[in-house]
Amino acid sequence: MFNPHVRLYLAGFILDFAIMTAITVIPFYIYNQLGGDEMMSGLFGGVQSVLYAGTCLVSSRYVGRSQHGLRWAYAGLLIYLVFLPSMLLSRNPWVAGGLSALAWAGLAIVWPAFYSWFGADPDPARRQKSLGWFNIAWSGGFTVSPLFAGPLYDHAYWMPFAVVFIGTGVALLLVWSLPRERDYFGVPAHEDANDETPVDWKSETFLYASWMATLVANIIMGVMRSVYPKRVNDLVAAGQLRIFFEGSPAGFLTVDAATKYSWLAFACSLFTVLIFLYFGHSVVWRHRLGWLIGIQVAAGAAFWTLSTTTSLAVMLIAFALGGAALGVGFFSSVYYSVANPRLKHRRAAINEGAVGVGGFFGSVVFGWLANRHGMAFPFQWSPLFIGAAILFQFWLVRHGARRVARMQRSA
Fold it and tell me: Shortest CA distance to 8 belongs to which of 121, 91, 106, 98?
């Protein structure tokens, strides 16, 4: 059988294929089967995200001390496999939303365990390469999944949920076959480094800023995944969606809204994959704030264009830049989070918590603003928020440098 690294890469691809299938179709399930709107969709995504973040942070103290951390991943995968497809059993939004939130809580104990397993590798260069390939694998699942999920939903709304059930089951079997960290890497699975382990001081300096960049990127993702599908749904229904800026729409743009949105989701995830591919085989981005700041500026400008555009081409560019921002922020923060082996699981959990908190604010706050003031309003004002977040990241790097100086003096 494939070696353990490859099996976990494959599990990441299949699991995220299943997860992105759910993410792509749940908003349309809310609009069409549950009778909801963008606010309900945002609330679903927000509750999922906040429960994900909270579970990450609470579980980290227990998973990080486990002698076999992947056992927690087994439990999380089983929870997701059972609860997410169970949404189909009720047309009550409260029940469906609760089931989806419980499913995301299961995922919260899966991903930190995965990253902790890779972080146990004592070789930094090999660890970076492994993280790169794993990020490419799971984001590859994110990339191709929408191209299937949208058409499947438009054909029969229940079919994507069957894909979720089958895909999560296959991922569970693959993870079940993996050896413990201690057996494979020759180190303990929890708080595994001794006091002699060298500290990567530069990564310590940039750690907090990278978490903030990840939070910002996931706010953008929360909006794109939970709120913006309503904009696409409305444009398709009204016959207002265009390829560029032509006077009348092509016939294929007036039907199957989920399929049209799936193209945007594909562009977003594709650029995340491309960033992961580059970052996994390069060192030029390490410990350089310009990479984090530059892509957030570009994503913020693109995000603003989503407020009023009816052009599918413009939307594709905006979603691509949002995906690139996620790639830069997330890869950087994962790398810095596991750079200190003694704290790798706890910090991987905090990083996943930033993913969840960002998704919560993006889904709930933007969903509420869009419902109250119109879809354009939160997009038009988002550059102010992103600008403030960027200034805060500059301060966090300076704070990180001072914190590292104190740590070095006391070491």
Answer: 121
